[in-house]
Amino acid sequence: MSEQSKGDLSLVALTKSFATFTAVHPLDLTIPQGSFFALLGPSGCGKTTTLRMIAGLEEPTGGRIRIGETDITDTKAYQRNVNTVFQSYALFPHMTVVDNVMFGLRRRGDKDAKAKANEVLELVQLGQVANKKPTQLSGGMQQRVALARALVNRPDVLLLDEPLGALDLKLRRQMQIELKRIQQEVGLTFIHVTHDQEEAMTMADSIAVMNAGRMEQLGDPATLYEQPRSTFVANFLGQSNLLRARVNPGGTDDMVTVRAHDVDLEVSREHLPDGVGDVWLGVRPEKLRLGESGGPNHLRGIVRDVSFSGVATQYSVEMPWGQELIVIQQNDGSNRATLGEAVTVSWAAQHGFALDASQDAEAGAELVDDHG
Amino acid sequence: MAETAVLSTGSAAPPSRRRRNWVPYALLLPGILWLIVFFVLPMVTLASQSLQEGNVDDGYVFTANFSIYVDALKQYWPQFVRSFVYAGIATGLALLLAYPLAYFIAQKAGRHKNLVLVLVIAPFFTSFLIRTLAWRTILSDDWFITTWAQNLHITDFLQAVGLTDNDSLLNSQFAVIMGLTYNFLPFMILPLYTSLERLDPRLIEAAGDLYASPWQTFRKVTWPLSLPGVVAGTLLTFIPAAGDFINARLLGNTQTTMIGSVIDAQFLRVLDYPLAAALSFILLILIVAMVSVYVRRAGTEELL
């Protein structure tokens, strides 16, 4: 195994352009050693291209890639201490599972290849199928072989390219927990590319949301969800109700009032971008309550749709100006509404966030349904 | 259709079940008949012919004359050996030429793929004989290729290793092997192309990602996965090349006679039918033996 110094992975103005378009605009990103990092975005946002540039499978048109102090930009894929778990798994069909797992170690002349491979196969609970061919295994098992084949090399960075995309929902949930466990156990840097926001939030310590070749926002899952900085992030990670509003002058150190459709509403000052007048005021559906909650933020409307899903009920409440707000209420015994009922919708000021109104309110929303 | 019928009528449908049982045999029938008439019967005739004695004018009598096989081998073993050596070298050369070409067509040619494939089979539009005759022109003494080969001392080299006897290229072992390589090259390219085309380029990427240099990737991934094509291509080249009788006659000399030419001459000129039949049978048995050993050694069963 290579003994070069490990460290944080840094991308410096990393760029990839093709003849007719730019897949990745100059990207600056530092991924701390040992973290579980997710690159999240819709298809074609540049996340896979970024991953492939880190792996050495795609040559950047500009910028540098470093691991710790070592610049690896100009090295070939096979010279990099980076391994990939491919979306298609790309297992060698003519080799047994254990030969697949040993492949990387063998290329480096590791004497303990066999022992190490068996150890990793135990870790992913595949010890009993070591001598089978990959085609004899189920999709979930193949996925774990692909993971084992990359893990066994103890790379500085392990890249996962939509590794759970081909699995069914139940298996995917299991593997998410499994992957997270393994990452914590081995302590390697994982970079996980996915278009599934729930997957990214479940597994990653921090997430970079990408859209159209640019990084929209970087942060831990809770911050991204609670304080999105763009309409794209607000819509791509979960759902958002966005109200067109104008910031009223004044306000206190903590609170600002904004005027939306002739109603004054409060929002925390720290959730308001500096120097903007026109905003989208955003609130997550589960932060909205049916009925008064004592605060200043309440709107009246009529229930147009009720859908019950067991743990929660989702309402669609039509505002006087025609917009429908989504309200998700836990089925915790609090008051319910019926179709056609006039209700009050309220929320706490610190649950709102304001975004620059020059953005498209629908950005990212239409992409969520495609992926499920 | 039979499948659907069974499903829709449920389990209680004996007529359609019976139909489904004989359909595969009915489909095989034309092929089996063809093989019986054009393969099994001639083989039996040939076997019986080889064990008869007599001549064309007085007719033949079956005498179970097995000693003819021993005599045939004794007399013509150099031609047998020569045939297999020439065919072996030509197969090796064809593999060296065809592999990079097939790889290029399968993995890199993109939208030109079909055009290049047509070019590969284009020589088939003219007859085998014409193409071999063209090589007489190409390698003739007054053409530039021989002149260049002389200037670059290639002819000296070929003479030194014994592939030619003098300063010319034509009428030599060299010319025969070139002719064989050229004539059977497409039979090497096409199966190689088929198996390299199925090769998932993502496996090549995966090998690179797992520290394999381009050469190691070829040795450990590309080559083993293309073995079915290599085996098919070498068989399709070696078998007809070993029995060929055109190249040796048109491009060789009296010292390059292959077994195919001997059989040809015995059948059509000497009119010694039993000897010709016995030689044909020996060739057949030797090829079957070599091929079985080869296929087993290549160990491609699990890849196919």
TrEMBL record, chain A:
One of its GO terms (molecular function) is ATP hydrolysis activity. Keywords: ATP-binding, Cell membrane, Membrane, Nucleotide-binding, Translocase, Transport. Residues 9-237 form the ABC transporter domain. InterPro entries: AAA+_ATPase, ABC_SmlMolc_Importer, ABC_transporter-like_ATP-bd, ABC_transporter-like_CS, Mo/tungstate-bd_C_term_dom, NA-bd_OB-fold, P-loop_NTPase, PotA-like. GO terms for cellular component: ATP-binding cassette (ABC) transporter complex. The keyword Membrane applies. Pfam families: ABC_tran, TOBE_2. It catalyses: ATP + H2O + polyamine-[polyamine-binding protein]Side 1 = ADP + phosphate + polyamineSide 2 + [polyamine-binding protein]Side 1. Its EC number is 7.6.2.11. PROSITE patterns: ABC_TRANSPORTER_1, ABC_TRANSPORTER_2. Coiled coil: none annotated. Part of the ABC transporter complex PotABCD involved in spermidine/putrescine import. Responsible for energy coupling to the transport system. Belongs to the ABC transporter superfamily. Spermidine/putrescine importer (TC 3.A.1.11.1) family. The complex is composed of two ATP-binding proteins (PotA), two transmembrane proteins (PotB and PotC) and a solute-binding protein (PotD). This is Spermidine/putrescine import ATP-binding protein PotA.
Automatic annotation (TrEMBL), chain B:
It is a multi-pass membrane protein. GO terms for cellular component: plasma membrane. InterPro entries: MetI-like (IPR000515), MetI-like_sf (IPR035906). The keyword Transport applies. It holds the Pfam family BPD_transp_1. Residues 80-294 form the ABC transmembrane type-1 domain. It is found in: Cell membrane. Belongs to the binding-protein-dependent transport system permease family. CysTW subfamily. PANTHER family: INNER MEMBRANE ABC TRANSPORTER PERMEASE PROTEIN YDCU-RELATED, INNER MEMBRANE ABC TRANSPORTER PERMEASE PROTEIN YDCU-RELATED-RELATED. This is Spermidine/putrescine transport system permease protein.
